[in-house]
Amino acid sequence: MELCNCIEPPWPADELLMKYQYISDFFIALAYFSIPLELIYFVKKSAVFPYRWVLVQFGAFIVLCGATHLINLWTFTMHTRTVAVVMTTAKILTAVVSCATALMLVHIIPDLLSVKTRELFLKNKAAELDREMGLIRTQEETVGTMLTHEIRSTLDRHTILKTTLVELGRTLGLEECALWMPTRSGLELQLSYTLRHQNPVGFTVPIQLPVINQVFNTSRAVKISPNSPVARLRPVGKYMPGEVVAVRVPLLHLNNFQIHDWPELSTKRYALMVLMLPSDSARQWHVHELELVEVVADQVAVALSHAAILEESMRARDLLMEQNVALDLARREAETAVRARNDFLAVMNHEMRTPMHAIIALSSLLQETELMPEQRLMVETILKSSNLLATLINDVLDLSRLEDGSLQLEMGTFSLHSLFREALNLIKPIASVKRLYVTLSMSPDLPEYAVGDEKRLMQVLLNVVGNAVKFTKEGGISIAAFVAKSDSLRDPRAPEFFPIPSDNHFYLRIEVKDTGSGINPQDIPKLFMKFVQSQPLAAKNSGGSGLGLAICKRFVILMEGHIWIESEGLGRGATAIFIVKLGIPGRLNESKLQFVHKVREINVGRMVTKGLLVHLGCDVLAVASGEDCVRAVSQEHKVVFLDVSIPVSIVSKLL
Amino acid sequence: MEVDQLQRSFLEYTNSLFRFLDGQFGQLQLLQDESNPEFVFEVVSLFFEDSERILNDLTLALDQQNVDFKKIDAHVHQFKGSSSSIGAQRVRNACIAFRNFCEGQNVEACRRCLQQVKQEYLLVKTKLEALLRLEQQILAAGGVIPMLDS
C-alpha cells in the first residue's frame, strides 16, 4: 500500500471509452469557453442590448461549466487531492451560478418574448398607417380633381364661384366660406359670394388693411384672426369661432395674355377667399387641407380667366355676325345699284344711239347727193362730229369697261397727216370764233402711216386741243407732233413709264401748248380724275362731265403711253403732252384678204376691189365662185368679201 | 415736143370727161403703178366685156313673153355695180332709174330705160376708148402718163 494522496478514479480504467470521454470533455470545455467570448464580441458590437447583467451571469455560468469539464480531464488519471478539491470547488460554484441563472431566466424570457410581439405589432401598425396615408392622399387627390373638375366644367363666372364655395365647404366641412372681390375702383373688397347666404349684402372693406396685404403677398393660405373684418361673417355666438384661413385668388386680366407669353402675376388684382372651420369643433387646419385650398384658389383663377376669355370671344363673334349681316346687306345694295346703273346706261345708250345713227346714216346719204363744195364741207363736218359723238356715247358705257380693263383698241392703219388735218379742221372754226390762232407743226421724221386706233387717238387729240381752246381767252394754240426719242420719253413724274423702243413701233409725242389761264400746279394731279373740274366757278361755258381727261388718260395708257400737263401757274398757259405707241405699217404682218364674186367670168368690180386692197397693202386672193371660196378659205384669211347674191348655203359653209 | 403735147391733150381730155366719169376713175388711175402698169387698160377692157354681156342678157330678158323682173333687176344691179367701179356715173344713174321701174314692173318703161342705159354706155365707151388711145400714144412716144390732181 502506497500512501499517496491520490484518489482513485471511480471508473475502471477502460482505455477506449476513457479516451473518448477525455476528448469530449476537452471539446466541451473549448466550446464552453468560446461561447462567452462570442457573446461578448457580439454584444460589444451591438449598440443596444438591455440585459447585460443576464449575459454576465450566463457568461459566468458557462465559464464555470467549462472549467468544470476542463478540470474533469485531469480526473481520468490518477490525480492529486488538490485537483479534486479544485474540481469540487468548481462544481459547487457552477451549481450556484447555474441555479441563479435559471432563476433569472424565468423572469427574463417572457420579457424577451414580449419584445418580439411588440415588434410585430408595431410593424403591423406602421403598415396600417401607410395604407391609411395612401388612402387619404388618393382621397385628397380625388377631391381635388373633382373640385377642379366641378369648377372648370362650367364657363359661367357665377357658377364657377358658387361651385367652388359649395364644394370646398363640403369637402372640408366648413362652417362658412366667402369670396371678396375687388371693386371697380380697386380700392375696396366687396363681399360677393358666401356659402350660407344666397345674396350677401354688399359689405365692403378697404383693400389696404394689413391682414389683407399679408394674404395678398403670399401665394399660400394664411391663417388669420377670426376677428379681422374679412372674417366676421357669422353672427357672433357664444362659442369660440373656428379657425379661419384666407387665400388670395389672382384675377388674371385678358390683357395679360400675350401670344406666346404667359401672364405675369404682377397684376395686383386679387380676390380674397376666406374659409372658416366650424366653431367649437376644436378642429385645426391641417397642412394637406391648406394645400388643397391653395390648389383650389389657383384653379379658380384659371377657370375665371377662361370664363372671361369665353365671354370676350362670344362678344366678338356676335359683333362679327352683326358686321357680316351689315356687309351682306351693303353688298346687295351695291350690286343692286350697279345693276340699276348698268340698266340705265344700256337703255340710255340705246336711246342716244338711235338718233345718232339716224344722223350719221342720213348725213352719209346726203354726202352721196349733189352738193356744192361748201355744203359738202358742212356735211362732212356734221358726219365727222356725229361719228365722234357716237364714239363718245359708246365710251360712256365703255368707261366702266375701261376701268375693268376689258376694252380693246381697234387697230388699223391710218394716215397721221390726215388725222392731224381733220383735227385741225374741226377745231379751227371754234378757235376762230374766239379769235385764237391754231398752228400745227409736224416733224419731218414722222411716218406717213401708222398702225393704231385712229378713232380713239383722234378723240384724245380733240379732247386735249378742245380743252386748250376752252381755257384760252386770247392768243392761241400750237400743236406739235414728233417722234419721241428715248430721252424725251421719260417723264420724271412718272417713274413707272418705261417706254421700250422696238423695230415695229415708234412713240408719237404730241404737245399742245396754249396761252390760256394756266393751271395751279397743285391741281394738276386732279385733272385726270373723273368728274373733277379744276375751275368750277371760272369758265361759264365749261360744259362737259369732267370725263374727258380721265377717258383720255385711259386710252393713252391702253396705247402704252403717258399723258401729263405742265403749267407754270395761273395765267401762264399750259402745255398738255402725251406720248402713244404706234405701229409702223409695212413691217407688221399683213392680213390676207379674199373675196368672192358669184359670176363665173372675171368682173370689173372684183378687179377694182382687188386693186384697191392690194394698194392698201393686203394680200388678196380672188376666186370666181362660191364653191371655190369655200375650198380656198382658211384660218389665215382675216376678211372675206362676198357678193350679196351668194346663196345662203355657201355662206353658212364659209362660217 | 410731142410727148408734152400729147400729155397736155391727155390732161385736157381727161378734164373734159368729168361729166361722164367721177372721182372713182381717178382712184383707178392712181392704182396704176410700176407693179401694175396696165391696170387701167385691163379694168376698162373688162368693163367693156361685162357690159356687152349684160346688155345682151337684158335685151333678151325684156323680149320674153313673161318678163322675169327679178332676173332683170339682178342684171341691172350688176351693171350698176360695175359701172360704179369704173366711175361711169351717168350709166350708174341710168341703172338706178331702171331699177325703180323694175320694181314698178312696168315693161314699157323698162324698155325705155334699157335704151337709155345703152345710150349712156356707148357714150362712155367712146370716151374711154379715146382716152386709152391717147395713153398708148403717150407711152409709144416714150412719155409717162401724167397724174391728175384728184
From TrEMBL, chain A:
What the entry lists under PROSITE patterns is as follows:
HIS_KIN
Identify this protein by name.
Histidine kinase domain-containing protein
Source species? Rehmannia glutinosa (Chinese foxglove)
Spell out the SUPFAM superfamilies in the cross-references. ATPase domain of HSP90 chaperone/DNA topoisomerase II/histidine kinase, GAF domain-like, Homodimeric domain of signal transducing histidine kinase
**Cellular localization per UniProt:** Endoplasmic reticulum membrane
- The lineage's top-level taxon is Eukaryota
Enumerate the UniProt keywords alphabetically.
ATP-binding, Copper, Disulfide bond, Endoplasmic reticulum, Ethylene signaling pathway, Kinase, Membrane, Metal-binding, Nucleotide-binding, Phosphoprotein, Receptor, Transferase, Transmembrane, Transmembrane helix, Two-component regulatory system
- Which Gene3D superfamilies does the annotation name? 1.10.287.130, 3.30.450.40, Histidine kinase-like ATPase, C-terminal domain
What is the membrane topology noted in the UniProt record heading this document?
A: Multi-pass membrane protein
UniProt lineage: Eukaryota, Viridiplantae, Streptophyta, Embryophyta, Tracheophyta
Automatic annotation (TrEMBL), chain B:
Main subcellular localisation: cytoplasm
Q: From the record, what ranges are coiled-coil?
A: none
In which domain of life is the source organism classified?
Eukaryota
In terms of SUPFAM superfamilies, this protein maps to: Histidine-containing phosphotransfer domain, HPT domain (SSF47226)
**Sequence positions bearing Phosphohistidine:** 77
The cross-references to PROSITE patterns, in alphabetical order and at most eight, read: HPT (PS50894)
The HPt domain sits at: 36-141
Q: Where in the cell is it found?
A: Cytoplasm, Cytosol; Nucleus
User: Keywords, A to Z?
Assistant: Cytokinin signaling pathway, Phosphoprotein, Two-component regulatory system
A Pfam family assignment: Hpt
Q: What is the role of this chain?
A: Functions as a two-component phosphorelay mediators between cytokinin sensor histidine kinases and response regulators (B-type ARRs). Plays an important role in propagating cytokinin signal transduction.
What the entry says about domains is:
Histidine-containing phosphotransfer domain (HPt) contains an active histidine that mediates the phosphotransfer.
This protein is called Histidine-containing phosphotransfer protein
Which species is the source of this protein?
A: Rehmannia glutinosa (Chinese foxglove)
